[in-house]
């Protein structure tokens, strides 16, 4: 754990991603969602192709597990992961996030898909 923390603090993106997951799950570290979000943010800033970090960030915003959740950021991060998703989880969350963003942008009105065609 000490080496992982040291590597993350030295700016290794994958170490920050692993540390984010550990803080989120309480694996070797005390559960700390704020630190998990911070580490995932650092990992994504260091490597914008890090799908695990993007997934965590998207889920934090989708689940409103941050002080200022953003439906736009939920869509942004989950879209990155959905493009390469083999299991459908990220695609499902992305589609749900798009619906939430639509409601947010249209004052709570649900989208009537296909009604403007």
Features:
6 helices, about 120 residues, about 0% strand, mainly alpha
If you had to describe this structure to a student in words, what would you say it looks like?
Helix content is 65%, strand content 0%. With 117 residues, it is mainly α. The longest helix is centred in the last third of the chain and has 17 residues, at 89-105.
Radius of gyration: 16 Å
Helix- and strand-based class?
A: mainly alpha
- The beta-strand count equals 0
How large is the share of residues in beta strands? under 5%
Roughly what is the average pLDDT, rounded to an integer?
A: 91
Low-pLDDT residue intervals, each spanning 5 or more residues = none
| Shape summary | elongated
Q: Helical proportion?
A: 55-70%
Q: Please work out how many helical segments DSSP would assign.
A: 6
What is the oligomer described by this structure?
A: single chain
Amino-to-carboxy terminus distance:
55 Å
Order of helices and strands: HHHHHH
Major beta-sheet overview: none
What secondary-structure arrangement, pairings included, does this model have?
Layout: H1 2-9, H2 13-25, H3 33-46, H4 51-62, H5 71-82, H6 89-105
Helix pairs in contact: 1-2, 2-3, 3-4, 4-5, 5-6
